[in-house]
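[SOLVED] Predicted holo structure with coenzyme A

Edit: marking solved, answer below. Original request kept for reference. I posted the sequence and ligand SMILES and asked for the 3D complex as structure tokens.
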Amino acid sequence: MTAGHDTFPVKVRSAAAADVEAILALIDLNVPSGELLPRTADFVALNADHFLVAERDGRVVGCVHLDEYAPSLAEVRSLAVSPDAQGAGVGVALVEALERLARVRGYTTLFAVSNSGDFFRRRGYEERHIPELDRERSSVSRFKGVHAKDVASPG
Ligand SMILES: CC(C)(COP(=O)(O)OP(=O)(O)OC[C@H]1O[C@@H](n2cnc3c(N)ncnc32)[C@H](O)[C@@H]1OP(=O)(O)O)[C@@H](O)C(=O)NCCC(=O)NCCS
């Protein structure tokens, strides 16, 4: 699938083993700020089926992880866009593709724990209490907003 304006085409696709390094680099950029949790190469490789990447001119410029939380509930995790590619629709393309994947995999609700509340609100996510999260939220993520969106297709 392709998104972005004419001079900045972006392709979002499933991640492959060859993308692990690029995904880790994108995540690592956002660990010091506390925005993303660090991941290991083994974790990303084992979960590659649940990662999407955005590619521009053959280079991975963004990633996102569909992380199952419960049979009908999944989390938008490890959403990151390379600083030189931000503000051009890559993040939106990744989130929209993740929502399609979530629907295909039978999840009805997606949520994100993030300081980027405005970004998610503009994509139709609303602040919501997710009871399943209560017992697991770390002392850091507890201070972030939780935004959720129902993604099940009608009918
Ligand atoms: C949050 C983050 C993923 C957003 O990625 P991004 O690629 O900059 O996001 P986009 O460009 O898709 O969207 C940003 C804005 O650009 C706008 N935009 C969309 N298409 C565009 C285009 N073709 N040209 C210019 N702007 C565009 C979007 O509408 C959006 O504006 P809005 O939120 O006011 O509606 C990115 O800032 C990031 O990596 N942040 C650090 C990590 C992080 O905070 N992750 C979230 C934790 S889950």
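OP edit: The chain has one domain: 2-150. Thanks to everyone who chimed in.
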